[in-house]
Amino acid sequence: MPAADDTAEQIAALLDGIVRRQRRGSREGFKDSVTHGQFRVLRTLDHAGRALRLSELAAQLGIVPRSATSVVDDLESAGLVARQPDPKDRRATLVDLTPAGRHILTTLREKRRAVMATQLARLTPAEQETLAHLLHRLTED
């Protein structure tokens, strides 16, 4: 029987491989146009359902505001997000998805879901349910 440390390392490596495969598959056809970090920004803005201040966006992403600014700069250049002045505070800037940003986010999500469905097809429905249950337990805080 493997030691707990060996099992933990094996599980970590397997999860990393699954995530890499999913990222690679969901970005097919987009080449390097959207990085994982940019996808996170698009997803966070979509989840918020409203424009966010750069500082709010950075806080929700768990990154420093300067890093958020860099990612938003790239997304704005690609036409996927737009900046606008905050009507409540002239010093602040709001960031929101553009229609093109919403479209690419929807497409990436659909591809991600399809890649995961292909991976999960190797498991029986009962195994899929067990996996989902175990992953939920691991993500509980």
Automatic annotation (TrEMBL):
SMART domains: HTH_MARR (SM00347). SUPFAM superfamilies: Winged helix' DNA-binding domain (SSF46785). The keyword Transcription regulation applies. InterPro entries: HTH_MarR-typ (IPR000835), MarR/SlyA-like (IPR039422), Tscrpt_reg_MarR-type_CS (IPR023187), WH-like_DNA-bd_sf (IPR036388), WH_DNA-bd_sf (IPR036390). Keywords: DNA-binding, Transcription, Transcription regulation. Residues 8-140 form the HTH marR-type domain. Signal peptide: none annotated. PANTHER family: HTH-TYPE TRANSCRIPTIONAL REPRESSOR YETL (PTHR33164:SF43), TRANSCRIPTIONAL REGULATOR, MARR FAMILY (PTHR33164). This is HTH marR-type domain-containing protein. It comes from Kribbella hippodromi.
